[in-house]
Fold:
Amino acid sequence: MKPTPISKDIILDAIKANDIQDIGAATIREVKRVAEYAERKSGVEFIKMEMGIPGLPAAQIGVEAQINALRNGVASQYPDIQGLPALKHEASRFIKAFIGLDVNAEGCVPVVGSMQGSYAAFTLCSQYDPKKDTVLFIDPGFPVQKQQLQVMGVKYETFDMYHYRGEKLGPKVESYLKKGNICCIIYSNPNNPSWVCLNEDELKAIGELATRYDTVVVEDLAYFAMDFRKNLSTPFEPPYQPSVGRYTDNYMLLISGSKAFSYAGERISVACISNKLFHRHYPALDERYSALPFGLVYSTRILYALSSGTSHSAQYALAAVMKAASDGTYDFRAVTSEYGRRAHKLKEIFLRHNFYIVYDKDLDQPIADGFYFTVGYPGLNSGQLVSELLYYGVSAICLTNTGSDQQGIRVCTSFIRDNQYEELDERMAIFAENHPVTNN
Structure:
């Protein structure tokens, strides 16, 4: 075998130093710490693919608006728990421009990143009906959302959509809903990590079932309009970002500033509640929260208890970016399409060295190039692949951690720099030589 760029002893020391029992089950940030430790000890630069941090500059329109807001003194003022009126207006307009849905401004509530948005949504959804105490994940998905439920003590069910695309998806979802205990359904679209994009027919099936079984759908749009196979960048003109909101009134949308606008550091998103759901009363919520409707429980009770509002200046930033996008003066998709270019080049390297794309098809189409993709290697399970790649200075997380039942890893394209493609190619050539694939 050829020597690896990083010795086995350094990687084992890094795992031990971070008190990790099983690297295959390690969280995103635990893998990140192992990579940082090994990088310091070895002097070898890691190619970091484990963490979904934007690798592009923050939208300058937002930066300028936030600076101006700070100069005008908003740092000394508590933000309104319902949100900055300008942001609520622009979020409503943005949804109309790029999804084609009518969501009133009152239902667009700023949150401290979609992480807080989902935490508050899970809290609320687990309380509106005593019989419904379980969240359904259409996986694979963002691992930390399950961690949120573990913190809350809320139950969840999950299935891997790999086997249930197209006409199979609706019956699979219904098999859970008919038990009567599902309070909400959550998925990301485009999907983290597979980059599968649910289409309108699949979303229609989910939406109609949500209405039939009176269940809330939480649609995580963290990678808004980033299916680069379609032109989703012209405001107020189709094609629009696909959404379950066309097929049910029982929905919440999480629209994040982190990836689409590279504004992750300021922790700013909006949770957008459908007009009917916002004003809906549930007996259990009426009793617990002084007869407030669903939307006001979300903002004035749950969000208020969590953070007493969302960063005031960051709300000005997101309002400015959304306004520019809806005005057609800022094409955010032209910026984020860089992730698609990176994914295309990375896939070429992995495929050249015996890796394969795990989620390779989006129904009858090849999977899009985007922020994430998934790869496996013949003869290695998810944990083995994560572990082995560390010796080659490559860090990633197991698909197992995302709720997938496939074997492989999640690859994030955001941190890849132009000077790293050649280095990755060389390291994966050694990897392939050290892990020969036999064709039986």
